[in-house]
């Protein structure tokens, strides 16, 4: 990569973009370039078209997926912890009023990670639609699986002591260790928050893999 590209890395673009925007885009790369130029009194800083230029060199047209793989969606989800109400996510999806927004949150994180444009994840707002898509793609794993970070986790809350095999909720796996799966979920108590479950919990319906 050119020195222009490296200058944006070396001066904190990645951290800045995650902290301020929850992800990377051509628009916020341009904003970063303009802010840095202004703060230093320069006419130009780095390459204002940094993101679209560098994306050419990475499969799936996503630079940061090329560097970080599935961990990127986790980083983006973590940056949203504490969000209440979910308007950022359900309005992005296209809804005019509040809906149950767990799937909108997952889809938003996937879009920010380039996983929707690469075809690794479907944009969905209804959990059963997500389940069926992962199954149709051969990317589905049932409860008891040991998921890797970034895996999409689907839940089925037991009703009257029994499951109906229809997903009620969805989140993103942050990590899995010592028989526990740790998640980041939107619309958990109307917030983006962390939760944890035994890998054999009856509340887990299964998983959608985002790997190639």
TrEMBL record:
Boundaries of every Peptidase C51 domain copy: 98-187
InterPro entries: CHAP_dom, Papain-like_cys_pep_sf
Pfam families (UniProt xref): CHAP
The protein, known as: CHAP domain-containing protein
Organism: Blautia pseudococcoides
């Amino acid at each position: 990569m050119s020195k222009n590209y490296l200058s944006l890395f070396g001066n904190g673009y990645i951290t800045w973009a995650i902290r301020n925007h929850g992800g990377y885009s051509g628009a916020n790369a341009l904003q970063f370039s303009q802010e840095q130029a202004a703060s230093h009194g320069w006419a130009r800083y780095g390459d204002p078209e940094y993101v679209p230029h560098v994306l050419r060199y990475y499969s799936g047209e996503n630079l940061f997926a090329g560097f970080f793989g599935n961990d990127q969606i986790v980083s983006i989800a973590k940056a949203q912890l504490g969000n209440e109400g979910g308007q950022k996510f359900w309005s992005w999806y296209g809804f005019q009023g509040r809906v149950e927004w767990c799937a909108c949150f997952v889809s938003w994180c996937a879009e920010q990670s380039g996983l929707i444009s690469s075809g690794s994840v479907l944009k969905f707002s209804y959990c059963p639609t997500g389940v069926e898509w992962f199954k149709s793609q051969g990317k589905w794993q049932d409860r008891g699986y040991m998921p890797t970070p970034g895996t999409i986790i689907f839940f089925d809350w037991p009703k009257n002591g029994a499951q109906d095999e229809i997903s009620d909720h969805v989140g993103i796996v942050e990590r899995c260790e010592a028989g526990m799966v740790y998640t980041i979920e939107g619309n958990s108590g109307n917030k983006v928050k962390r939760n944890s479950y035994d890998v054999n919990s009856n509340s887990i319906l299964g998983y959608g893999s985002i790997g190639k």
